[in-house]
Amino acid sequence: MKKIALISMGLLSLLLGLVFIVVPGPSLIFFIAGLFCLSFYYPKARDYLTLCQNALTRSCAYIDKKLAR
Asked: Which pairs with CB-CB distance under 8 Å and at least 24 residues apart come from 38-43?
């Protein structure tokens, strides 16, 4: 039961992330939340989660550096 709930919540978050790409909204937050839920049972989702986290860290550091000037 827990596995089904976690997977369905992860898929729902990923779908909301896809919707928020088209309409303005926090798409990246929903992608990361969906990948986090799916990463408990799917190792490939864990790899994608790490990739998203590293990309977000690099982009935030870049924006901080640009705004610090």
From this structure: 38/6, 38/7, 38/10, 38/11, 38/14, 40/6, 41/3, 41/6, 41/7
